[in-house]
Amino acid sequence: MLGPVILAASRSDKMRRIVSAAPVTKPVVNRFIPGETVDQVIPIVEDLTRNGLEVTLDVVGEDITAVEQSYAARDAYLQLVGRLAALGLGEKAEMSVKLSMFGQALEGGHELALANVRPVVEAAAAIGTTVTLDAEDHTTLDSMFAIHEELRKDFPQTGCVIQAYLFRTEADARRLAAAGSRVRIVKGAYKEPAEVAYQDKAEIDKAYVRILKILMDGEGYPMIGSHDPRLIAIGQELARKAGRKLDEYEFQMLYGIRSEEHLRLAAEGHRMRVYTAYGTDWYGYFMRRLAEKPANLLFFVRSMITKN
């Protein structure tokens, strides 16, 4: 299995240097990450929304090592909110944040991350949009869920992400579905040990369906994060059985993957949100995209062979 190998490489400084220095890397990265600055990504957002899509924006760069970097992350998101407000995009574009980027892994990180993310959530609410807290590796989740619960006291629309491959997630889903929150379900994109996570793809898919049913039958707003045609069809059927209208759930997919499917779902009347990342520290995000699907890795390798 190449996925775990690639995920391990996503944490390797040596591999970061090798991949970053490869001449063909940047053109391939652009498939998944359409810009390094807010000025470069805003035209992408405008184009997507003109085509009936919605967007969630992620400023990449979670592997920080200093408090000052956490403040810079906060300020980058506040700048993004300002640009969305000026263009009237608040209703179509939300934001996804990784709390590690806001200092969660540093000394006193829980309080630091909460202090940094709160003004972003507040600014987002002021322009009519929302923030979703991305899930990271399993050691960070108790902190993430606690911050999510704290933020929802003042900003109940704040979303969070759960990962189907973790054994704990069915219990998390039951709690969150009952709370009426916005919940994105994904398969999971971090290297997790067998003690806490399913390792077999078929088992992960089964867990995904079980958890999605919990969300659909609950009081919250499910966000189906998947490119898998079978899971998308199952999601539609579960929504129908739960009596949900088309605006009572949504699909989410990554920028650069199955773009025609984005448009097809939107044309059918579904809410379809494109997860769009930008920034200069793209390595970790890029490697997880390669690990998620062998076709992504083959695309990268083929590009390297073609260019050399």
From TrEMBL:
Q: In which pathway does it act?
A: Amino-acid degradation; L-proline degradation into L-glutamate; L-glutamate from L-proline: step 1/2
Domain named Proline dehydrogenase is located at 45-298
**Record Pfam families:** Pro_dh (PF01619)
What top-level branch of life does the organism fall under?
Answer: Bacteria
* Secreted found in the keyword field: no
Q: Which cofactor does it need?
A: FAD
Catalytic reaction list: L-proline + a quinone = (S)-1-pyrroline-5-carboxylate + a quinol + H(+)
Q: Which InterPro entries does the entry mention?
A: FAD-linked_oxidoreductase-like, PRODH_bac_arc, Proline_DH_dom, Proline_oxidase
Give UniProt keywords alphabetically: FAD, Flavoprotein, Nucleotide-binding, Oxidoreductase, Proline metabolism
PANTHER family from the entry?
PROLINE DEHYDROGENASE 1, MITOCHONDRIAL (PTHR13914:SF0), PROLINE OXIDASE (PTHR13914)
Q: What is this protein called?
A: proline dehydrogenase
Q: Source species, please?
A: Streptomyces caledonius
